[in-house]
Amino acid sequence: MSDKTTKLTSLYLSVNEDRKAKEYLASIKDKDERELERKRMYGESKELTTEGIVDGILNHIKGILTKANKKQYKSDLQALAAESPEGKKAVDSLLKHMDGGAGAMAQIEKLQKELGY
């Protein structure tokens, strides 16, 4: 095997082990017990583990893609609204409903954090 293949295989196995560990941690219901087990497995800093590094990279990529998608979506809505009065009315209605949904989602996320999910 080439050096690149060996490194990729090693990274895959490490990430796979971290995925299993993450699933195990998620299965622990008690929040305090889960945190103690995470510290036992990873130490104080999760960011120094392979999982932490990969999560950081994936979160960064997700942020970039989300920002690009939102920008394109906003541009498409503006183009639709500019086409006709009916288009503008439809876009305004959609944005109104989306704002209501965003508020509900914020409340759900707040409750999830409070409950430890």
Description:
By secondary structure, this protein is mostly helical. The chain is built from four helices and no strands. The protein has helices at 3-27, 31-42, 50-83, 85-115. Helix 3 (50-83) runs antiparallel to helix 4 (85-115). The longest helix is centred in the middle third of the chain and has 34 residues, at 50-83.
Report the oligomer: single chain
Amount of beta strand: under 5%
Rounded to the nearest angstrom, the radius of gyration is 22 Å
Count every helix, treating DSSP H or I runs of 4 or more residues as helices: 4
Helix and strand succession? HHHH
Structure summary, number of beta strands: 0
Largest sheet: none
The overall average pLDDT, rounded, is 80
Instruction: Classify the helix fraction into a percent range.
Output: over 70%
Question: Low-confidence spans: pLDDT under 50, at least 5 residues?
Answer: none
